[in-house]
Amino acid sequence: MRLYRGMTQPYRAEQIDKEKLLMGTDFTDCPLPALHYAQGRNGVLLVVDIPEEPKIRVSEALWSLDDSGPKRYLLHGAPFDPYVVAQIPAKELRREIRKKGMRALTEGDKSLVLVRYLKGRISCRSG
Asked: Could you write out the DSSP letters of every residue in 25-56?
């Protein structure tokens, strides 16, 4: 399962408060809402791939009352560093969805554009 987290600063494992990990760290299954949280000049989108049987507890959290739209997940109890596959500057992703013809797209379509872009970007990095 691929999850996303928007951050205002680049992710650095050594700065994570271990006690906060027990309460859970928010992620979403959709990159666009996560991108909205990656505000500022230093904002990044953190991408994690959670395996079928992770060594970290994953729970789904309530985000919308009607259960529509993206889902919110919490990763509990252990550092999620082994699952991080990319950390992409938010300004790069914003540029992607602001290209000519993209502004008129719906939120769902913009999310699909981001998912496709991220797949290509991440596969190029790992290949």
From this structure: EEEES-HHHHHHH--STT-EEEEEE--SS-SS
